[in-house]
Amino acid sequence: MEKNLDIDRFSKRLNRYFQITTQVGGIFGRLGANKYLGLNIDQKKDALSLQKKFGQAKGPFMKIAQLLSMIPDAIPKEYANKLIELQSNAPSMGKYFVRRRMKNELGTNWKKKFLTFNESSSFAASFGQVHKAQLNNGKLVACKVQYPDMLSTVKADLIQLKIVLNLFEKFNKVIKTNKIHSEIKERLFEEIDYINEAKNIKIFKKIFKNETKINIPCIFSQYTTPKLITMSWLEGLSINSLLKSSFNNRKLREKLATNIFNAWYKPLYSFAIIHGDPHFGNYSFTKNGNVNLFDFGCVRVFSVNFVKAIINLYQALREKNIDLAVEAYKTWGFKNITKELIGILNLWASYIYGPLLEDKKRLIQGDGKKGYGFEVANKVYKKLKAIGGVEPPKEFVFIDRAAIGMGSLFMKLNVKLNWYELFNNLIKDFELNNVRKKQKEILN
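Below the sequence we write its predicted structure tokens.
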């Protein structure tokens, strides 16, 4: 087998560093120039350039593009639309690479293990691309092959991320970033280990074993390695395709939203586990609104006490119980909690928990004016700056990421649901020892 496809060399990391700095940095510079200096930039043309550069970059920086495209009004719609395409239709690598990867993982005679293997990718994403194939027993499978040099890529991008976070903290002084970098680093190294992802898929398969509305692929272990993962093929439509054909079907949109809410939050409140990468390319839907979940590289396992604190804070806000709120923040690891800090944190929490506090059907963003969330964030930012900043728990990185991803989807669906009822159905049976037991069983 070939051994030179993934060697971690300093030269590769250096090349990656300059690739990101020159390609992506220049485009963000033009974005800033357009927004703040009023320069006349052809946004449609520049959006195509942005899509191409991020697609070529692959790896962690492509995830920045995915995140940017999901936050409503974060960037001009021309850019957001092109970046959304990266989530399920990124530029793929060619057949020569695919043959080398498959030979590297399954041996010289790898083609004999399949009746058919499509060397053109069906989907391409941040760390790998997916190929549709058929095993000798006739089963349709998705073979996800990892791009070359991902270890070097992740290491180089983490160095850049550290520099960016340090600069942010130096000039901002609102958010302490050490724990944020540590959390992202841990998850990224897990994400490029496909054996770990296969294990995560098996965990979610157990979680949803009795659920008919949420589909999880099966793993074929004999065709899975640290750089190749083979799973059952799940037929489905992207959210954009489904909405294009049935946006006026209110009941279908309500079903989509309910199913995706349960898909993301049942694991959290029943097992203290969350799928940490909720961008639109990581799930698809059947025509009747059932959810296909895939790409389980980023899965976060929490302490049960951490999840209990999420529920405690919810109850504290409902009951205006300051002592219970303090207990929740302390459990999460906030230090030097003062009355002033509690007020600031509760301001932000009241916005995040807002949809769950009203026992009625409502839009996820409420009926407030456009941009209300950014106004709240700006007010919290100013108040935190005035008291010298705060260090958020590292677990918040992926809790926040899930909240942004889900909120973006629900806004896209433009659906009114009783979020209070959905949430309370999930937490009504929460009991510490029971969830600890279930988590231990599911992870073994």
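The first strand starts at residue 114 and ends at 117.
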